[in-house]
Amino acid sequence: MPVKPIAIYGDPVLKAMCMELDFKKHSEIIQSVCRDMVDTLAHVGGQGLAAPQIGVPVRIIVLHPEFFPGRPKDSVMINPTIRSSGSLRDVKEEGCLSIPGVREYITRPTWCKVNFFDRNGQGRVVAASSALARCIQHEVDHLNGVLLLDYVSRGRQKQAAKRMKQISKRAA
Ligand SMILES: [Zn+2]
């Protein structure tokens, strides 16, 4: 099973503006990256994963299939674009597989509509609310090099960096 290591905060791939994919030119890459991402997400656990988190700067996100009971095709999104989002916002705690041990309160719209292509190159659209909407926005941020720490104060960023250093020291 092609489970890949997760890129950790500080890795430049997490700051990359990821490449849009073309089904004609990149079909092999698309299939292999989707496979690796689905396997990696199932292995590490988590609500979602973006391609740069496995070191590949392309526009693919994978969401936990429990968000889409009966519609597993919708859990892999290629070239996802958030077309609109609600004006209502809420604040919830978020974590990120690339920033282990850190959780931050982030304000986001409670609703969004996302256009994407499924693995077969079929254009699709999903209207999402609450946890799914938050997860999609978090993962699409990754494709633009944006991490949840980009939403918090300098002080919180420094604290998080310190915390991550402690964790990596303990792991070493
Ligand atoms: Zn993340």
Q: Radius of gyration from the CA trace?
A: 16 Å
Distance between the termini: 26 Å
Q: What order do the strands of the largest sheet run in, or round the barrel if closed?
A: 1-2-3-6-7
The SS-based structural class is alpha+beta
Portion in strands: 25-35%
How many strand units? 7
Low-confidence segments, given as residue ranges, are none
State the domain count. Answer: 1
Mean pLDDT: 94
Largest sheet descriptor: 5 strands, antiparallel
CATH superfamily: Peptide deformylase
Oligomeric state of the chains?
single chain
Chemical compounds bound to the protein? zinc ion
Rough shape? globular
Say what the CATH topology is: Peptide Deformylase
String of helices and strands = HEEEEEEEHH
> Any guess at the CATH architecture?
Alpha-Beta Complex
Describe the structure.
- The structure is a single chain.
- β6 (111-117) and β7 (123-129) form a beta hairpin.
- 29% of the residues lie in helices and 25% in strands.
- It has three helices and seven strands; from the N terminus they run αβββββββαα.
- A five-stranded antiparallel sheet has the order 1-2-3-6-7.
- It has a single domain (12-171), classed as Peptide Deformylase, CATH 3.90.45.10.
- The chain is globular and about 45 Å long.
- The model has no long low-confidence stretch (mean pLDDT 94).
- The protein starts with 26 loop residues before the first helix and ends with a helix.
- The chain is of the alpha+beta class and 172 residues long.
- The site of zinc ion has 5 residues, from α2.
